[in-house]
Amino acid sequence: MGAGQERILRSRIKGVESTKKITRAMELIAASQIVRAQSRIAGSRPYQEAVAKAVAEVAGEVGAKGARLLGTPTSPQSVAVVAVVADRGLCGGYNSAVLRTVERKFKAYQSEGVEIHLFTVGKKAQSYFRYREIPVETNFVGMTDKPKFSDAEKISDALVNRFQNGEFDLVEIVSTRFISAGTQKVGIAQLLPLPESVKGETQSGYRAMPELEPEAVPLLAALLPQYLETSIFGALLEASASEHTARQRAMSSATENAEELITDYTREMNRVRQEAITTEIMEIVGGAEALRQAAAAERN
């Protein structure tokens, strides 16, 4: 019995050690990708800031005619929601945190009678909402690992014209913000209309642009695609960094759990082996004692 148990435990230890090698490798890969993702976030910021500044300058000149392009609608009738998650799993609660937030928002809008158009980024979103019978208008895949600006353009193209044509009153994005290596947070951001906060991007007395009336409104409308693309690209980059961070953390935890399991199995195997040795010794001693007693009986 002891030998059989020992073989089972050895097999389990071997299996866990193989799993540990995989999780350790995935942890190291994720760690290297975090560094690259952070570098890409930093590299994209100058362009994002330049676009935001240009939009802020024009937004400051928009009057009542541009009301639909700026601010938050009080009673939207049609809302587009973009959910950004991963194509893959093994990243802890990264996907579920975003998806639960989107599901709550979907139900809240639904209860208010708002028409919802759901756009998703990542395979995990597609399967999640299909299971819950929540309709997804468009699902984008292959964008979350290493986002490209062209990915943001594809998402923007699916939104901006329909907003300008009045099909959407509000466009929001739900994604994970990368605050630091230790802090990531699910956030909901308004993409369109331009939030009032963009007007506060430039507060100095110096104005980089001349007065634009009455051309401010069409110019702002022309800037919308660029603003939307840069905003979405920034969200994709932060989501990617957050995904890699979550995966690195999950794989690190899995590696630690594997080490603990190996220790437990090794301890159990040693106990089984010790019991087997003790049993064998007792059998030998018992056999020797029986032989001694038999020899004594023959002499008598």
Describe the structure.
By secondary structure, the protein is of the alpha/beta class. The protein has one domain (22-203, 224-252): Pyruvate Kinase, Chain: A, domain 1 (3-Layer(aba) Sandwich). It contains 6 helices and 5 strands, in the order αβαβαβααββα. A 5-stranded mixed sheet has the order 3-2-1-4-5, sandwiched between helices. Helix 2 (94-111) links the parallel strand 1 (78-84) and strand 2. Helix 1 runs antiparallel to helix 6 (216-299) and helix 4 crosses helix 6. The longest helix is centred in the C-terminal third of the chain and has 84 residues, at 216-299. It starts with a helix and ends with a helix. Residues 202-206 have low confidence and may be disordered.
Give the tags.
Pyruvate Kinase, Chain: A, domain 1, 6 helices, 61% helix, 300 residues, alpha/beta
